[in-house]
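EI: anyone free to look at a 150-residue chain?
SC: sure, send it
EI:
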Amino acid sequence: MKVILLEDVKGVGKKNASVSVSDGYANNFLIPRHLAVPETKKSLEILANQQENLRILDENNRKDAQELSLKLKDIMLEFVAKSGKDGKMFGSISLKQIEEEMLKTFNIKIDKRKFIDKGPVDTFGVTRLRIELYKGVEGIVNVHVKEQTK
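SC: here you go
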């Protein structure tokens, strides 16, 4: 019997795949547990529509991420930090602080887990941090840390 899998089934196939299984396995296991549906013209049409909708959604998300990447190029986040005797920075600017500053100042929400450069900013001057905005789309945030004047 030919069925379309609704979820990944170990040893059978991946989600949305059309596979051939025994009638008993399909009727007694896959279909009652909502892991598969029988392959018919209607189910193939529904699958094609779902895949087209996913493709359109993926295109829109990629386009939005590319637009955000262009916006991020022009943004410079400003921070002030204390320095020690030898001119080194006390502490660091965490990714969470950068995330909060982006939201507060520019109303752009970026998850701190999306930063490719995982470490905190611990030097004075301008640091460029890369962010994965979407699959294959990267953005760059410029962070400028100034020395606090007494």
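EI: The chain has a mean pLDDT of 90.
SC: 👍
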